[in-house]
What we know:
Helix content is 67%, strand content 5%. The protein has three helices and two strands, in the order E-E-H-H-H. The model has no long low-confidence stretch (mean pLDDT 83).
Amino acid sequence: MSTSPFAAPARGVYRVSDDGTHRPNHRRHTSHGGHSAQSISLLTIPQMSANVLTHNFKRMIAWSIVIGWVDCLMGLGLSYALNVPSGASIIFVSILVYLVLKVGNVAFKKRQRQLETI
Length: 118
């Protein structure tokens, strides 16, 4: 298989040893960008979910702690059951919980307005 002389070599796949042979590169080239996004999500999504339930600051902190804890447990369970990365499954569950709370809150307020007009 011929490659273009302008093609960039695959980083982190092989290294050339002293005798000129190609050997697998065991050094990891990792980017930590995803970890910071997950950390920010773990801090903000439970707070957004708690904000749907209450606007009182002390209650929001309490709800945020409870929601974050439940999200983590459910995400870890999902991760174990589906054999997927735990961080991604926790964030996925957190987003689903937020969406359920938000849609439920909108539906509840709409129903309350309908009952008030009767």
